[in-house]
Amino acid sequence: MLRTNSCGELRLTDAGKQVTLCGWVQRNRVMGGMTFIDLRDRYGITQLVFNSEQNKELCNEAQKLGREFVIKATGIVAERSSKNPKIPTGEIEVIVSSLEILNPSKTPPFTIEDETDGGEDLRMKFRYLDIRRNPVKKALLLRHRMAQETRCFFDQQGFIEIETPVLIKSTPEGARDFIVPSRMNPHEFYALPQSPQTFKQLLMVAGIDKYFQIVKCFRDEDLRADRQPEFTQVDCEMSFIEQEDILQVFEKYAVHLFHNVKGLKLQKFPRITFADAMRDYGNDKPDIRFGMKLKNITSVVKGKNFKVIDDAQTVLAIASEGCSEYTRKQLDELTDFVKRPQIGASGLIYVKFNTDGSIKSSVDKFYSEDDLKNWMLAAEAKPGDLILVLAGDENKIRKAASELRLEMGHRLGLRNPDVFAPLWVVDFPLLEWDEEAKRFHAMHHPFTSPLPEDIPLLDSDPGKVRANAYDMVINGVEIGGGSIRIHNRKLQQKLFSLLGFTKEQAESQFGFLMNAFEYGAPPHGGIAFGFDRLCSLFGGSDSIRDYMAFPKNNAGRDVMIDAPSAISQHQLDELNLVLKEKQY
Ligand code: ASP
Fold first, then answer.
1. pLDDT, tens digit, 9 for 90 and up, residues 518-577
2. What residues are in contact with ligand 1 under a 6 Å CB criterion?
3. Can you tell me which atom of ligand 1 is nearest the CA of 196?
4. What does the angle CA 75 – CA 76 – CA 77 come to, to the nearest 5 degrees?
5. Which residues make Cβ contacts (< 8 Å) with residue 107, sequence separation at least 6?
6. Would you identify the CATH topology of the domain 12-103?
7. How far is it, in rounded angstroms, from Cα 558 to Cα 124?
8. Looking at the predicted structure, is the pLDDT value of residue 446 above 90?
9. CA-CA distance, 34 to 175, in Å (whole number)?
10. What's the CATH number for 290-411?
11. Closest atom, ligand 1, to C-alpha of 236
12. Which of 10, 167, 371, 465 is disulfide-compatible with 190, CB 3.0–4.6 A?
């Protein structure tokens, strides 16, 4: 060992001991005859002192140490005269008697402090320097802790961690695959797994009745703040279970994580159907830290010659508690908010129910006070509330109202990141109609079982069939999703045919799974948690990148290693790949 202690370890009780520390120079200050160096490592910061009266040469050497030099210093631990209560080692310093430069450093391109002057691009290019900063290091430590607690929980529950392959077969369902050419099989390609779905189902057929894996998944999708081309799932599957068993085991997992990592006790998880979530929140991943449910007031508002409302398919209201005093400016801001192209509403109607009982609205021309009182009843508003009303096409308006509700929750400080409100959303539709492609898509994936009571509808009204599927949602974030699976060849074939596969296509792509179903496949189901998202939720950030050691940027690039990159003609030839001319 080059060191006796870490830079986060020494306390007043160590005074008088001789120690050797190694680390990076965070700061170097010369004050009169004294030189002070803040020495940093993974564990903390310790102050080193050099006294020119005692050792002039050593002190001169110390003065020359630049930021991020790696050094080894030996000396005696002493009580500090001016203590720093902000750091755990703040009561001591080390009076150095010998110093060795282990490696000098160029001046770093940004400051390695909690608040840095480095922009995102620069920090990503020098991610190894960024990780030296406390906030990034803390995020990785949190991730480590959560991974350990995950393994510990599933191990205790009798789950087996099994690795599934990374080079698999491309299938057209779901997102776009990342493709890998095969040198040994010219003109054929592997795909990177979007999830280990089919493998975990095969493990159930194999009799491994409780499986889990912390696993990398790959999806070639356009990126957003909470998406990355490669991400990690906590992937699980169980046999001989029903939906209820899954919900209970994985609720227990969430409770375990919150308790062991954050010291928080989660309340029981409410359950809500997809239909109710859409009705009350306009969203299948509702943030239930606050109320302000959407109210459909269509039937009370029509017929007063106000075209916007009379022509609307749906009219939705949100009663914002205690907001009747909103100013013109605040209302204009909200109107601009709903008119943004991403939200897509054409305007916003408001009604203020003042605490003195008077009513003021943006539609006073069309509606009497009595009419507006009916609005208030329908919106379940009380004096002091502001009713925000959106009118138009059902799907568009519901989505806009959902966004507006979240915006109001944010403005009213009701989305506190330290409060956690989990729930299960259940009974999703099995299929989703794609108007453009004129075909159904699986809402979860094609292996999801219909609810048993809805199976007859597969023939008569497939769009109405509900899936035996569930999502865990916390604070408006989908944390995990899964389903009870089909384990019967005939039903699986039927699903593929509803999804527009010919018999041959289904056979060539998923024949291996359907064949396995004929060798004693047990009833089974599972779930996968988005591990990066779970970490960011625990850490209180919106960006999953902060919880990945080496994330990609918005264009899917790793700017540090400069990937993806061109490959040599030799490699292309070996892989039997011919590149198309670039077209400008
Ligand atoms: N494989 C699914 C997914 O990645 C999760 C599951 O159904 O278990 O979304």
1. 999 999 999 999 999 999 999 998 889 999 999 999 889 999 999 999 999 999 999 999
2. 195, 197, 445, 481-483, 526-528
3. 1
4. 125
5. 66, 67, 68
6. OB fold (Dihydrolipoamide Acetyltransferase, E2P) (2.40.50)
7. 8
8. yes
9. 62
10. 3.30.1360.30
11. 8
12. 167
